Amino acid sequence: KDRIRDMESNTLDEAMQEAVVAAEESNLIKGTELSHSEHLPPMNTEATSLEDVFLLTDIISESELSALKPFTESLSECTQVHVDSWREQKKYPEYVLSRLPVVMADDDMAHLYLAQLLYISYLMKLLNIPRKLLKNKKTNFPNTPLLVIESIHRRFTSQGMVDG
């Protein structure tokens, strides 16, 4: 078993090395620094835990948090009947719906946690939108504050601010 594991490990190491060399030779990563990517917030390179790598305020601005307040209040007042209805309508991803009881357990942090869940759901939705349909923001993100939609488009697409 150890011999097979060593062979698999060596094969994986070799494949990784080949991929790195190929990427460097094709200029895919030459001169590119992850911390300077236009689609990533600034990184704390001195972080000692995952939670400290990115600041939440560099991802979701205070104005976006404020714009999400009515939506987080609606989520915080929901009952199981609401959740079941939203599940049927596919209004929110299952991940968001399954996390609601957990995030609402902390009254002091519920708004922030719910805003994070909503933002994650918007990013998940963005990931599944074909590039040619990105211009129609209102169709892609119904019942979402315009400020948040524009921010997501500006930060996470190559199209930036688009008409919609």
What topology emerges from the helices and strands here?
Blueprint: H1 2-25, H2 62-76, H3 80-89, H4 94-103, H5 110-127, H6 137-140, H7 146-156
Helix pairs in contact: 2-5, 4-5, 5-7
The largest β sheet comes out as: none
H/E order of the elements?
A: HHHHHHH
Overall geometric form: globular
Helix content: 55-70%
Average pLDDT, rounded to a whole number, is 76
Distance between the termini: 58 Å
Written overview of the protein:
The chain has 164 residues and is an all-alpha fold. Helices cover 56% and strands 0% of the residues. The protein starts with a helix and ends in an 8-residue tail after the last helix.
Short note summarizing the structure:
By secondary structure, the protein is mainly alpha-helical.
Keywords:
single chain, 164 residues, mainly alpha, disordered N terminus
